[in-house]
């Protein structure tokens, strides 16, 4: 063995298993696609022709499901886009961070402080998770 043996450990995640390809021309409003590496809900889709010998293009407007930022992309309708997979396994989750939304955070803290039985809704896509809603389910 030489002194310059190197060991590399990869901690990167390509996210390949968190998306699947779908032809751009088949993606509709209210679907979920990846725009600029971010999981987005499609809020607007328009298709246009570029000319006599051009290809039809799809213009997508999406809202990042975690940040709420508006993102746009234009893709030839025959090309594939990455579509974000959203899963709901129903398993109990106990390792979530508290939300940054002050109103939702206060409701959660106050509810647990009062001993209420609460259920939180969690949005999950592409390795990120976020508490997005709260429901008081009352006494058991």
Number of strands: 8
Radius of gyration over C-alpha positions, nearest whole angstrom: 21 Å
**CATH architectural category of the largest domain:** Roll
Strand content: 35-45%
Determine the CATH topology of the largest domain. SH3 type barrels
- Order the strands across the largest sheet as they lie in space: 2-3-4-5
Fraction of residues in H or I helices: under 10%
- DSSP helix count? 1
Supply the number of structural domains. Answer: 2
As residue ranges, the low-confidence spans are none
Average pLDDT: 78
CATH uppermost class of the largest domain = Mainly Beta
Shape by Cα distribution: elongated
Ends apart, CA distance between termini: 64 Å
Classification by helices and strands: mainly beta
Q: Helices and strands, in N-to-C order? A: EEEEEEHEE
Main β-sheet: number of strands, strand sense, barrel status?
4 strands, antiparallel
């Amino acid at each position: 063995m030489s002194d310059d043996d190197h060991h590399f450990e990869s901690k990167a995640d390509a996210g390949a298993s968190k998306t699947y390809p779908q032809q751009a021309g088949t993606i509709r409003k209210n679907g979920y696609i990846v725009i600029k590496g971010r999981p987005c809900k499609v809020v607007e889709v328009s298709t246009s022709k570029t000319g006599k010998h051009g290809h039809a293009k799809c213009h997508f407007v999406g809202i990042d499901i975690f940040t709420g930022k508006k993102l746009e992309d234009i893709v030839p309708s025959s090309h594939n886009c990455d579509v974000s997979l959203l899963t709901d396994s129903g398993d109990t989750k106990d390792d979530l961070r508290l939300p940054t939304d002050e109103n939702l955070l206060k409701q959660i803290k106050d509810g647990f402080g009062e001993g209420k039985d609460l259920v939180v809704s969690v949005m999950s896509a592409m390795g990120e998770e976020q508490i997005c809603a709260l429901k008081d389910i009352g006494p058991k």
